[in-house]
Design brief:
single chain, 118 residues, alpha+beta, Ribosomal Protein L22, Chain A, three-stranded antiparallel β-sheet, 5 strands, 34% strand
Length: 118
């Protein structure tokens, strides 16, 4: 059985989030929690929350408390969200004003009780 967690509109660059997601794909939840606590990246905090939420969703779906060693991260990916323009500007060429652009991402984590990795 699978369970899913979506985090949308996170203010992290998808490229930087994917670096961390590559390290947790296919591991058990207990391994993932230990790994994410030791990775010195800013995005590891939201990924930790997403993995915990997906594990809790699977626990509710199955109707019992699960052993973290027997739950696996099946799929974890990050897609690009909308570019956010702040209400501040910096100087551009020929006297123009250029807005600051901030990157956003949508994060999806799918966990399963069977060890199959896509």
């Amino acid at each position: 059985m699978d369970a899913k967690c979506n985090l949308k509109y996170q203010s992290y660059s998808p490229r930087k989030v994917n670096v961390v997601l590559d390290k947790i794909r296919g591991k058990s939840l207990q391994e993932v929690e230990y790994t994410l606590k030791t990775i010195p990246k800013r995005s590891s905090g939201i990924i930790y929350k997403a993995v915990r939420s997906a594990g809790a969703n699977l626990s509710v779906k199955m109707g019992k408390k699960l052993n973290l060693n027997k739950v696996w991260v099946k799929t974890a990916y990050c897609t690009k969200g909308p570019m956010k323009y702040l209400r501040r500007y910096r100087a551009g060429a020929m006297g123009r004003a250029m807005p600051y652009k901030k990157k956003m991402c949508h994060l999806t984590v799918i966990v399963s009780d069977a060890k199959e990795v896509e």
